[in-house]
Amino acid sequence: MEIRKVAVIGGGTMGRQIALNAAISGYDTKVTDTIPAVRENVKKWADEYLAGRIAKGRMTAEQVEEIKARFAVAETTQEAVKDADLVIEAVIEREDIKKEVFREISRFAPEGAILTTNSSRMPSSTFIDCVKDPSRLANTHYNNPALVMKVVEIEQNEKTSEETVQALVDFCVKNKKTPVRVRKEIDGLVVSRILHAINEEALFLVENGYCSIEDVDKACTEGLNHPMGPYRLMDLTGIDLNFDIRRNEYERTGKKPTGYDLFKKYVDEGRLGKKSGKGFYDYT
Ligand SMILES: NC(=O)c1ccc[n+]([C@@H]2O[C@H](COP(=O)([O-])OP(=O)(O)OC[C@H]3O[C@@H](n4cnc5c(N)ncnc54)[C@H](O)[C@@H]3O)[C@@H](O)[C@H]2O)c1
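^ thats the input. predicted complex w/ nicotinamide-adenine-dinucleotide below
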């Protein structure tokens, strides 16, 4: 099960970086998107990124020419997947759209191709009925920004074959990524679950008057050597995003999550974190 050609479906925040990372690592890669302006922008973005690598002395002009020759933007999904050994789906987080994409990929990709989803919320078993061979279906979850972050979580479903997992592990290693195997499907995978647990505890400690925001962050940066404390990180990822996660959880479970009221208050006040100038910290 050797992977040589890669297709990425969806050229947004994640898809373009996953695709360029594969091209940099030596794979013939095609990326596609339904929106023409996105397809054009992907090409421009990749050119600018690679020019930046030359300017910083990280790549030679010759290396960049080789990468560009391996990196193509395809007009359609059919064109992108027709000779791919691995297809990574990275379209918007909508189940109906992703299911349609998997049906299309399964129809046009070669028989032995491995199909994966980059979804943060949907396990690959969501798409079992959309593909011909579920033994070649899995999650490959890159972290954002995908060109920089090392960990790729490889999550198998009940039908994923060992051969598929091994091929994906090898692919990640060749991409200079660190594969983390998730042997059974679980909501939130590993990185997000651990981060969530830290955030929950950080919120509990402040909400109940045990500690200040600043001291919780200090405990993590100076006591655990984390590069950033949880409150600063929540400011960076966005108070609105953190609120959305809790609102979804509240709707799903009927139990109010830790920090719900505080996040709601901040969102109502427009305190969305670093991007709005104020969150837990003041950036103005
Ligand atoms: N953004 C993150 O931090 C992050 C991190 C890890 C995983 N993910 C996952 O990656 C996936 C993509 O997220 P994103 O942040 O890149 O989204 P995004 O909105 O930036 O990009 C999604 C792209 O998919 C395109 N698209 C929609 N329907 C399509 C179709 N039928 N065919 C081809 N392209 C189509 C859209 O035009 C858009 O450009 C999601 O499943 C998300 O859960 C996101």
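Strands lie at 5-9, 28-32, 71-74, 86-89, 114-117, 137-142, 151-156, 178-182.
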